[in-house]
Amino acid sequence: MIKNPFSEEIYLRRTHPHKPDLRDEYFRDQTKIIHSLPFRRLKHKTQVFFAPNNDHICTRIEHVLHVATIAATICRGLNKSGKWELSEDLAYAIGLGHDIGHAPFGHEGERAIDACLTRPKRFLHELNSYRVVEHLANYGEGLNLTFAVKDGIICHCGEDFANNQLRPAEKPNDLEKITGRNQMPSTYEGCVVRLADKIAYLGRDIEDAVKADLITTQDIPQAVREEIGESNGEIINTLTLDLINNSKDRDCIGFSDDKFAIISQLRTFNYERIYHNQQMRQRKETIDKCIRDLFAYFRRLFERYGFDYDAYTAEGKQTAFNFAKYMRSMKKVYREDPVQVDDIIADYIAGMTDSFALDVMEDVILPNSIKFFS
């Protein structure tokens, strides 16, 4: 029987122990994530097309639900083979939480925030998702998730196309020391989520690009259409079944070589025709400027007022008031340490939805209204 390499004691460990209840521990983590404020905001965060005016374009909250259901299905399929012992609840919890720290405006927003930070500090959404669930949520209390779920979240990188046959890390990860995207999860369920992430976004991004008139289905490479499908549903079904069938008799998680080659071809197509499309490049310039200007604005505010929260009202801007209110509410995290100013600003901007970030830009750019008294 193939199962995770480490003890349940390691996987179920929480930062703050609490009494068990009638729920399975990983199901309990699912409810913690779903009821959190950062999770709720995902419904107004971009997957690819920012601030869409079409209700049928994928948002970040739909994406995490897709990943969660695909990952749980893969675990169920492998368990039915009789050779694997995986937790569907663990895979689903990781899927729900994997993008909880994503920035507004999708990966462009992520890159823009990263560009505003002083090296060696980095902003990567995987690292920030862990930061949110462990340190920022609940006004600095965190969500107190199990190690296995947090480990899957921080190690979920779906942009990794160098590795197809995935196995857990050789020893449990030290989550506080992870600084990049190369670390494998400590569980097979985490490996499943890394691949489920690819299944979820490659087909859905095509579907949305067709709706946005960036491409037509006939533009999709013929090999992709014939081998894995041209609709999101066909692509998900084909790749999910391939992953299960290719992994059920092995001790690793991966696609068949033929399907992985097609997936790589599909990824190349998506980058050339969707992500780097001329319209998308123009939006990228707007996003970069928006994030850069917001970062500069909050830095100027902090230089003037620091942690004198009440003083921010002198700006006469709702945005200044909200920023001070945020810092006051997060005193447990920042401890009024001015060295953390970039962390504070990055955390605040990363928590914004697309629409809120645009509203903030409008508030920052436009002059205050002159008040007339009769």
What can you tell me about this protein's structure?
The chain is built from 17 helices and no strands. Helix content is 58%, strand content 0%. It folds into 2 domains: 11-278, Hypothetical protein af1432 (Orthogonal Bundle), CATH 1.10.3210.10; 283-365, no CATH class. Mean pLDDT is 93; it is low at 370-374. It is an all-alpha fold and 374 residues long.
Mean pLDDT: 93
Helix count, per DSSP?
17
Content-based structural category = mainly alpha
Examine the secondary-structure arrangement and name the CATH architecture of the largest domain.
Orthogonal Bundle
Low-confidence segments: 370-374
Rg over CA atoms: 22 Å
> Which of globular, elongated, flat, extended, rod-shaped describes the shape?
globular
| Highest CATH level, the class of the largest domain | Mainly Alpha
Report helical residue fraction: 55-70%
CATH topology of the largest domain: Hypothetical protein af1432
The structural domain count equals: 2
What portion of the residues fall into strands of 2 or more residues? under 5%
Strand and helix layout:
Blueprint: H1 8-11, H2 25-34, H3 37-41, H4 60-80, H5 88-97, H6 106-116, H7 125-140, H8 147-154, H9 188-211, H10 222-227, H11 232-247, H12 257-275, H13 278-305, H14 318-329, H15 331-334, H16 341-350, H17 354-365
Helix pairs in contact: 2-5, 4-5, 4-9, 4-11, 5-8, 5-9, 6-13, 7-8, 8-9, 9-11, 9-12, 13-16, 13-17
Features:
single chain, 374 residues, mainly alpha, Hypothetical protein af1432, 17 helices, disordered C terminus
Structure summary:
The protein has helices at residues 8-11, 25-34, 37-41, 60-80, 88-97, 106-116, 125-140, 147-154, 188-211, 222-227, 232-247, 257-275, 278-305, 318-329, 331-334, 341-350, 354-365. With 374 residues, the chain is mainly alpha-helical.
